[in-house]
Design a protein that fits this description.
Elements (H helix, E strand, L loop, with lengths): L1 H10 L2 E6 L11 E4 L6 H8 L5 E5 L8 H7 L3 E3 L5 H16 L4 E3 L17 H9 L3 E7 L1 H4 L14 E7 L11 H22 L10 H7 L8 H7 L3
Parallel strand pairs: 1-7, 2-5, 2-6, 3-4, 3-5
Antiparallel strand pairs: 6-7
């Protein structure tokens, strides 16, 4: 997959410039948490991030010939953003199984592509999986893909010269080891959002409002194996 992503990026004249790859754990399971600006994020991240990680991908992508077949056969996780709480809880379970099998997982915790390239609040699904599996989250920021193919665009536009996209990886963030599950998820999500925001700003990206509203919702939720907030948010993980 990495070879395909690299060759595809070169064909589209995308010049990917990574930083911080030394922060990626050398082995074991963890969650990559990246901001999401464009469909080309898949090519960009796939060309530089190490390890045989699994993607959290929209189920509709699984129906695309060749690409969808690869996603299914390679064990990537289909996600239905609006399929209800039962399906959302099942997605968290799939995330957790990937991690417990020792595989890294990549999620876009904003839940969908940013319409303006500005970093949005994070959903909870991937963070529930990280807390339950006891694995760290590796923050990833990328900038430049929104200008290549913004949400709703049909292609990357006319190619005249190499287009620079920057990727920066931060230090792993360990999940809290004590406290109610919902509170641990909220803390991990907030810390990850802050780290991605800092990384994004350092490479010239735009950052929106700080985390807050979803953390307040989590404070009022009951800790259980399938808390309401987790079910609600996992479908957009």
């Amino acid at each position: 997959m990495q070879r395909w992503c690299r060759s595809s990026a070169r064909a589209l004249y995308i010049d990917v410039r990574p930083e911080g790859l030394e922060n990626v754990p050398s082995s074991g399971a963890f969650v990559y948490a990246a901001n999401h600006q464009s469909l080309t994020d898949i090519l960009v991240l796939g060309s530089v991030l190490p390890h045989d990680y699994k993607w959290a991908a929209k189920r509709s992508l699984m129906k695309i010939p060749f690409l969808g077949w690869h996603l299914r056969l390679a064990g990537h996780v289909p996600v239905d953003r609006n399929a209800g709480s039962r399906a959302a809880a099942e997605v968290i379970g799939r995330f957790e199984r990937v991690l417990r099998e020792g595989k890294p997982l990549l999620v876009f915790p904003e839940g969908t592509r940013s319409e303006d390239g500005v970093l949005k609040p994070f959903k909870n699904g991937g963070f529930y999986a990280a807390v339950r599996a006891g694995v760290p989250v590796v923050p990833v920021a990328l900038d430049g893909t929104h200008d290549l193919m913004h949400k709703g665009a049909l292609d990357t536009g006319e190619i005249r010269q190499p287009r620079i996209v920057r990727v920066k990886v931060g230090a792993p963030i360990a999940p809290p080891s004590s406290g109610k599950e919902a509170q641990r998820v909220a803390e991990l999500r907030t810390r990850t959002h802050a780290s991605v925001a800092e990384l994004l700003a350092s490479i010239g990206g735009r950052v929106g409002a700080a985390e807050g509203s979803e953390g307040e919702e989590l404070q009022d939720s009951r800790a259980s194996n399938q808390p309401r907030s987790a079910e609600h948010d996992a479908a957009s993980a």
